[in-house]
Amino acid sequence: MSRIRSKDTKPEMLVRRLVNSMGYRYRLHRKDLPGKPDLVYGPRRKIVEVRGCYWHAHLRYDPTCWEARSEAKSNKGYWGPKMDRNVERDQKNLTLLEQVGWQVLVVWECELRDMAAVKERVSAFLSNP
Ligand SMILES: [Zn+2]
User: Fold this and answer.
1) 58-82: per-residue pLDDT in tens?
2) Is pLDDT of 128 > 50?
3) CATH of span 10-127
4) Confidence class for position 114, pLDDT limits 50, 70, 90
5) 127 CA distance to ligand 1 middle (Å)
6) How far does the centroid of ligand 1 lie from the alpha carbon of residue 51, in Å?
7) Is residue 18 over pLDDT 60?
8) What does the DSSP assignment read for 73-117?
C-alpha cells in the first residue's frame, strides 16, 4: 500500500470551503481533542469529521458505498486487521468526544457528490444549539 493519509485531503478541503461559505469560524485538527478532529466549532461544541471512504471503511457502515467498494475490491487488506484498527479507533474517538459533550457530524467522501445535500446537513447541524 503506497497511499499516504493526508490531513488536507480533497474531501476535507471541500467541506472546509463549504463551512467557510456559511460564515462559521472553526479550528482545525485540535490536538487537545481525541483523534484531532477535522473541523471544530467551539462555541456550540460541534465537530464535523470528514472521512475518506476507503481508509475509514465506509463500506462496513454502509454497504452501498461505491467509493470504498471499488478500492476494496483491489485491496485484500480492506477486511483485515489493519482496517479493523482504523474502524475501532474512529469509534473510540467518537465515543470519547461525545462523553465530554461534543456533538459530531460525520461527512463521508462519497456524500460530497451531492454538495447541496451536504450543505443542508451541515447547516442544520451547526445552526442547531
Ligand atoms: Zn462512502
Assistant:
1) 999 999 999 898 888 888 888 899 9
2) yes
3) 3.40.960.10
4) very high
5) 25
6) 8
7) yes
8) HT-GGGGSHHHHHHHHHHHHHHHHHHHTT-EEEEEEGGGGGSHHH
Sorted by where each begins, the domain ranges of the chain are: 10-127
107 by DSSP, 3-state: which?
A: strand
Average pLDDT over residues 25-46: 94
* The three three-digit cell numbers of residue 78, written as one number: 480492506
- Cα of 61 vs centre of ligand 1, distance in Å, is 9
**CA trace torsion 52, 12, 10, 116 (10° rounding):** 90
* C-alpha–C-alpha distance, residues 72 and 110, integer Å: 14
Cα 67 to middle of ligand 1, angstroms: 5
In whole angstroms, what is the distance from residue 37 CA to residue 40 CA?
7
Dist CA 124 CA 129 (whole Å) = 10
Ligand 1 center to 107 CA (angstroms): 9
Closest by CA to 52, choosing from 33, 71, 36, 39, is: 71
